[in-house]
Specification:
Helix 5 packs across helix 10, helix 7 packs parallel to helix 8 and helix 12 runs parallel beside helix 15. The protein has about 450 residues and is an alpha/beta fold. It has a domain of about 230 residues: Aspartate Aminotransferase, domain 2. The protein contains 15 helices and 16 strands. About 45% of the residues are buried. The strands form four sheets. It has a seven-stranded mixed β-sheet with strand order 4-12-11-10-9-5-8, with helices on both faces. The structure holds pyridoxal-5'-phosphate.
């Protein structure tokens, strides 16, 4: 049997196993089609490689229980939303207390002050605004950047994902370097090539050329690509990239929605990137809908001037529920109890152990695979080197093997993130959880070897 036929056979047996062990999820998935598009409240939930959606009844710490009563050790953690564990007790308490005292007033409470202080303490920037999601925060920051610089162009890296933000949903033509609309995006009507420029990650010459045209409002970037495989920066890349932004008058907006897993306060703080704007969503308030963006005093003055000089009316920035009382209570508790040295100390130590264990098992099995880690988050990459940019990932990724690895592990009680085998370690993850993942991964590489020998 060739490799593709072997993977197809393994996949068929894993699908059968899921169907046999998840009768309740299978039935719920069928019934939910009467109420929801594709049978799920958000259609992405159907993008997992299992034959039907896994319905979750309970999530606590690093553990999830499904509707069939099966328990899973969760390394997906809501794709970062639950990076500090599911329903941490301090957060659950703060939410319950505030829930009885008002949910939203479109006015601040005195809590805004300690929250502002804590944001500065954790992330290092002095001035802040709130949004309900990282997508919203990025959209609003882009508006501010264009308003204060009076420049039209957004600069992003190829393979970027910054949420449901039209301007960022683009690809790069690998031959001409031109901006292309991302073909999967529905209802696309904008001419992105006019307003968004895309360069390969880790390519300083391309970045310099894109900035040199003098029309770039901001570079919006993750410090490492995390949504197209995990692609870390090359040594010295960010020091040079940051200097180029300054030289050409473009703002540097650092989207830390995922890279907040790197260290307390995120990658930019740990590595001295000094962004003009920092965006964090998902886990910032422990998983309640919340995102924040922080900026320098100098930029705050420019933002205030832009708003004051604009005619009265809609700014196009903000939503009614942004900064609501419930979210602010969760954010305060998260900043105090979750964003701590102790939590990151635990997460990083355990992530190192996991990385080491995965590497050992890969080496023992003689597979040409790589593990790339950024603090508490790591990725199992089915290629023989750490990728340099998105094109490198496109050229080497093995989607079928990734999906099958995911399903094999899910069938044995270990959840990885779908799409690109990402694993995240939370403060609630134990060493026994890590050993469990390693044991199942060991079984998986053995199963692959057996199937290759047949
Ligand atoms: C780096 C980054 N920014 C922004 C977002 C958007 O987050 P949300 O879907 O919570 O708006 C994501 C989502 O995956 C992300 O990875």
């Amino acid at each position: 049997m060739n490799k593709s036929a072997r993977l197809t056979a393994l996949q068929a047996s894993e699908r059968e196993r899921f169907i046999a062990t998840h009768p309740t999820s299978m039935a719920l998935a069928r019934a939910a089609r009467a109420h929801y598009l594709f049978g799920v409240p958000l259609h992405w939930m159907r993008d997992w490689p299992s034959p039907a959606t896994l319905f979750v009844t309970h999530a606590q710490g690093a553990r999830i229980t499904c509707a069939d009563g099966l328990a899973y050790t969760d390394f997906c953690l809501g794709d970062t939303g639950a990076m500090f564990g599911h329903s941490p007790p301090a957060l659950a308490q703060a939410i319950a207390t505030q829930a009885a005292q008002g949910l939203t007033c479109m006015l601040p409470s005195p809590r805004a002050l300690p929250v502002g202080e804590a944001l500065q303490r954790v992330f290092g920037l002095p001035r802040w605004q709130m949004a309900l999601s990282a997508s919203d925060a990025n959209r609003f920051v882009l508006r501010w950047a264009r308003a204060v610089t009076r420049r039209p162009v957004l600069l992003v890296f190829d393979g970027c994902y910054h949420g449901a933000v039209d301007d960022t949903l683009v690809d790069r033509d690998p031959t001409s370097g031109k901006t292309l609309p991302r073909p999967s995006v529905l209802g696309q009507v904008h001419n992105h090539a006019d307003f968004t420029r895309v360069v390969p990650f880790n390519d300083l010459a391309a970045l310099r050329a894109a900035l040199a045209q003098g029309d770039v409002a901001c570079l919006l970037a993750e410090p490492a690509l995390t949504n197209f495989g995990l692609v870390p920066p090359q040594p010295g890349f960010w020091a040079a990239a940051r200097a180029l932004c300054r030289e050409h008058g473009a703002l540097f907006v650092c989207d830390e929605t995922h890279t907040v897993s790197t260290a307390l306060g995120g990658y930019a703080r740990a590595h001295g990137l000094a962004p003009d704007v920092l965006v964090v969503g998902k886990a910032v308030a422990g998983g309640l809908p919340c995102a924040v963006y922080g900026f320098t005093e100098e930029l705050a003055d420019r933002m205030a001037a832009a708003k004051e000089h604009a005619p009265d009316g809609h700014s196009g920035i903000g939503t009614t529920l942004s900064g609501n009382a419930l979210t602010m209570a969760a954010l305060e508790a998260a900043l105090q109890h979750l964003h701590t040295e102790a939590n990151y100390g635990h997460m990083l130590k355990l992530a190192e152990l996991l990385e080491q264990g995965l590497r050992e098992r890969i080496a023992r099995a003689g597979q040409p695979w790589t593990v790339t880690r950024l603090g508490a988050r790591m990725e199992l990459q089915f290629m023989d080197h750490t990728p340099l940019d998105a094109q490198d990932v496109r050229d080497h990724a093995q989607g079928e093997l990734e999906a099958l690895t995911h399903l094999y592990m899910l069938n044995r009680g270990v959840l990885l993130t779908p799409f690109h085998s990402m694993l995240l370690v939370s403060p609630a993850t134990s060493e026994a959880d890590a050993q469990r993942l390693l044991a199942v991964f060991g079984e998986w590489v053995d199963a692959l070897a057996r199937s290759a020998a047949e």
